[in-house]
Amino acid sequence: MSDPLVQVRDLEVHFPIRRGLLFSREVGAVRAVDGVSLDIDAGSTLGLVGESGCGKSTLGRAMLRLAPVTRGSVRFDGTDVAGLSGERLRSMRQNMQMVFQDPMASLNPRQSVETILTEPLRAHGIPYDATRVRRLLDQVGLPASAARKYPHEFSGGQRQRIGIARAVALEPRFVIADEPVSALDVSIQAQVLNLLDDLQEELGLTYLVIAHDLAVVRHMADEVAVMYLGGIVEQAGADDLYASPTHPYTRSLMSAVPVPDPAVEASRERIILQGDLPSPANPPSGCTFHTRCPFRQESRCHDERPELREVFPGHRVACHWAEEISSGAIGPHEVALTDLEAD
Amino acid sequence: MSRARTATRPDEPLLSVRDLSVRFGLRGQESFAAVDEVSFDINPGQHLAIVGESGSGKSVTALAVMGLLPSRGVQVSGEVLYRGTDLLTCDRRAMSRLRGSEIAMVFQDPMTSLNPVVTIGRQVAEVVQRHLKVSRSEAFERGVDLLTRVGIPDAGRRMKEYPHQLSGGMRQRVLIAIGLACEPKLLIADEPTTALDVTIQAQVLEVLKELVADTDAALLMITHDLGVVAGLCDDVRVMYSGRIVESADRDRLFAEPRHPYTGGLLRSIPRLDSPRGQRLTPIPGSPTQTIPWEQGCAFAPRCAHRADQCTDSAPPLEQSEGRALRCFHPLTGAASQQEAP
Helix and strand tally (H, E) in chain A? Predict the structure, then answer.
């Protein structure tokens, strides 16, 4: 076994909260990412799932150093990206690219598609000619005539294709796709997901796919990590995770996704979570999920933060009671709303 | 469902929309039909879904029913009969009496549909005070009840807060509380959970489902999410480019989609319960690639079953076997079942 291409260790991204005008002082921090470790093997896809505010996008951005790393390391092919700066970081980025959520906001409306696609090449001093642009467009399924057009002349799905072409222009090895289809119409999403699949096969890419949509992640990923309030709560192979979700949060997330099939909708068990995501500036004590957890047990969940540990082979869960929940020894119970308000 | 439904006979539709068309365009310019020949009925207590992508005209249909479209540059024709009264021709005062008390609406984005400088309490109490003619303190108390019913903890305190102090899910609950404040007979919900996270979406849908069942209200659900439809609605209308292309009850539609667009949608969605790595079958092209309905089928440019006939003349909406279909070459029973995931 070769080493994983990307190794993240104890990564923390904290955004300081400052008070005071003249002598600003730090009064706290938003713990957007709070101690995350994960590995991504070359050529595979890791799916990162979570709801808004859980820190999944910040984690992705920090891995490319688009967000400041507070502590921890991000090793890409053996080099710690978190410790790099200046020219070395810049040249490192050639290998790591990003596809953003909203193609309208991430493409410069005043640049032609040709300029957009060649900008990364120029920035890294790579010589190119018109065939290179044509090949890129061809790879993402756009006609060569698209090169002279501007972003507003395309539909949403085509714009996302341009965003993807820009990300693969430098022939990177690692691509982070942050909500690649959530801004698109339903009938278009499948086109873009298939394109990402094809490119992975063709170019041997390694993906980190960040999404809130479990179905999208299931479709794309080999391995899935579920994030809640800055930390990973469960990580396993995709089939394993979807077949036997163990962490109470994963279970409720899974049961909340509507399935377009009336028979399935009518028959399946639903766990409906109470309350909202707590503030990452003031996370709950112990297990961060204990305030909303239908499986919570007295005192330990409140007092002690669970480690992400291997419960079954290749299946890591951050829950004190993972074994009991999985065997059915602990069942879900009602969560009183007053508990939520107290935190 | 044992409680008697008041006032309306069950066999008479509560709302009957007939040949509704909405055209946008300023004088002197060619107008554009956002909604074209749309007809549907909602019976008391029925849950009807209108499904479509952006630009299909589903929201404009809802706004036209509520009389919320601007008068400048918009031509609305057809009939919207609410218990026999045509909402398109009735006067404004009658309309505003109905709005809120008999027909209510929940919008997609609670941040833009709540007034940011007015407390939650006043916004909830306003509807109650206006339609039920009760005192201010009574309205406030009813407001607290309503917020408690939609699952907002510590409702008394929340009444004094402003919209920005609430989370997205809470704000959507407030909107539902306002919508159901006067126990309307018909609730129109326009993408009520699209702006929310999945676990919050599940909470809000649950609240909506419960309250609608409690008050025996009919529900018109406007959405793009077939998953939401599968769990909530009895009857479905699928819209494409301003017209209804398929209409059927829920079970029939999901089990056996006949219109190539409906079938394509169901096949292109990644599903939580489908085997991993299965390749998706997308609908080619994009919703902007249409031809005007007058010249043919608007879906023809993206359709795999397209024939010459489809681009020569417009397919009519034909009724058969409990469903209506606007297609010359529908998926046959066997093919649609086979192709469906």
Answer: 14, 12
